[in-house]
Amino acid sequence: MPSHPETATSATALPRTAPRPPAAPGGRSRTTVRSRRFRSRLGLAAALAVLPATAACAGSATTPSGAADGGKPVDGGTLTLAVPYGPTCLDPHQGQADALFSRAALDSLVWQDDSGTIQPWLAKSWTISDDQKTYTFVLREGVTFSDGTAFDAAAVKANLDHVVAPATKSAGAAQLIENYRSARVVDPKTVEVTLAAPASSFLTGLASPSLGIESPATLAGDPKALCSKIVGTGPFTSAEGFTPQQGITYQRRADYAWAPDGAVNRGAAHLDRLTVRIVPDNASRQGALTSGQADAAAAIAPVNVAKLKADPKFSVHSAVSPGVPWSLNPNTEKGPLTDVRLRKALRNGIDWHLIVQKLYFGVSPAATGALSPSTPQYAASVAGQYGYDAAAAGKLLADAGWTARDAEGYRTKDGKRLSLDFLYIGEYFGQYTALATQIQAAAKDLGIEIRNQNLDTGTYVKRVLAGDYDLLNSSANNSSPDALRLVFGSAHVPTAKIDNNAARYRDDQVDAQLAEALATTDVQRQKALYTAVQQKIGDDAAILPVFNNTYVLGTSARVRGVVFEQQSFPNFADTWLAP
C-alpha cells in the first residue's frame, strides 16, 4: 500500500524511551517525544492496502511539551490542525487505521508502556488461562460513551465481534486479532475472550486505536454511517462527524475521567475544540501554520524542518514509528527478481542511505532491516546485510548472466533487457515521486531499468492479485514484532484479496518460526525466533528497506502538551494553548 509518512516517512527508529531535552527559547522543541498519556504502540500491518494508512509513527513516551516548558495548563480554546489527507473511513474497525482522526473519540481496552508491558485502561485487570487461549477482563466502573450509554462487557463483545465480522470488511484491524474466536459476557463488568490459538500479540493489538471501543448502538447500524461518525468513550466527541476532503471538528467531553494511569492529564481535555482540516498541498499546509490560520500542521516537508525549528514562533515535534519501514518489495515468485542474486544486487548496489539523506535531510532515518529499530525484538545484527557495495552488486549481476549492455547502458541476457516494473497509485504516491526518480537513476547506474508505472486503483489491484509486477512499495506501522508474520508470512500473499506480503515471499521455516513466536510468551525464545526470521529475510533479500517512517508536526509556540502515541501520531488529550 502506498503509505503516507508525515514528512515523507512513516515507520520507526527512536529509542523507546528518550528524555525530552529542555525546550529552546520561545517553546521551540528540537525533538519530539512520546507522552505519558499514551505509550500504546499501535499495530496496523495493512502494508499493501490499496488506500493509504495514515502516516503514523511510533516511539517512546516521555514528558509532554507543556511540562518541559514549565507551563501550567490552561483550559479552553480551539486548536486547528492541518493534515495532508483523511481516512478512508472514520471507523478504524473498517478502514485503515487513521488514528489521528479516530483516537480523539475512542479509548482502548489496554495500553502499552515504554517497556512493552501492557497496562490497564478501560480494562482494569485481566487474567490469562494456562493454555493462553482465554483472557478474562475486569472492566472499569463509571465509564460511559458520549451517547450516554454505559461501557460494559457487552460493549467489549460487540466491538470484537464487529471487527472480525465479514460485513465489516476490515482493512487492518481484524489482522491484529486474527486468532479471536469469541467473547462471553460473564457479568456487566467481566468479559471472557477466547482465542482459537495462543497469540502473544493479542494484547498489543487491543492497545491499538484500530481496536478502539465504539458504542454498540452505532455498531448495529449501517457500516457506512460509521465512516462519517463514531461514538466512543474518549475525551472528545464530534456532533458533525467527518466530511471527506474537508475534515472533522471535535468538542471536549466535560465528564471524561478515565484516562490511563500514566496520563499527565487525568481529567477532561484542556481544549474546548479540536479541528482537523485536510489540506493536501504541502506549501498551503505550512503556509496555514506560519500565517496563523492553523495552530499545527502535519507532514512538514523535510526541506523546511530546519527553518521552522530556527523560528522561535514555532515548534517542531517528530516521532519515528515501529514496524516494517517504508520499503520496496521485490516479487520473489515471478519475474527476474525470483533470482536472489538480482535481489541482493538491487539491495546492495544502490546507496539507499545517501538517497534518503539527500531527500529527507536527516528527518527520516535510513532503514537497516525488515523492522525499524524502535520495534520490540529488532535485530541490530542484521544491519550489515543492508550496506552499500556496488562492486559486489556488479559481480552478483554478472554471475546471474547479466553481462552484456544495450545501447542505453542497461544490462541484457539472451538479448533481453533487465527491466523491472514498479507499480504505484499516483493519487497516493505524489510525495514519493522524487524518491522513485532517484531510485530509478541509481538502478540505471547498475544497468537495471526500473519502469515506474502510475496506475489507477482498479488496474493496480488487478495486477497485484495476479502477481504481475516486480516491485511494490509498502510499510506497516506495528508495535509488535508480529508485523513480520503479517508482512512475510505465506498466508498473507495477495491472491484472492489485497494483503500484506507484497514480496510474495514463502518460506516454510520462516512460517514455522513466526507461528512459534506468536504462540510463546517466553521473551527470550521470541527474541531468538524473531532474530532468526530477520536474518533469513535478509539472506533471501525479501525486502529492500528504504527509510523509517517519521511523523513531523509543526506547531505554533503557544501549543503545549503535544504527545505522541507509540505508533507515532500526535494525541491532543493533554494539549493546551498558552495565552
Radius of gyration: 23 Å
CATH arch. level architecture of the largest domain: 3-Layer(aba) Sandwich
How does the overall form come out from the CA principal axes? globular
Give the total of domains: 2
CATH superfamily of the largest domain: Periplasmic binding protein-like II
Please report the distance between the alpha carbons of the first and last residues.
Answer: 42 Å
The largest sheet has its strands arranged as: 8-9-10-1-11-21-12
Point out poorly predicted stretches: 1-68
Number of helices: 18
Name the helicity range: 25-40%
Quick one: biggest sheet? Answer: 7 strands, mixed
Strand content: 15-25%
> What's the number of extended β-strand segments?
25
CATH topology group of the largest domain? D-Maltodextrin-Binding Protein, domain 2
Kindly report the average pLDDT value. 87
Under CATH at level 1, the class of the largest domain stands as Alpha Beta
Structural class: alpha+beta
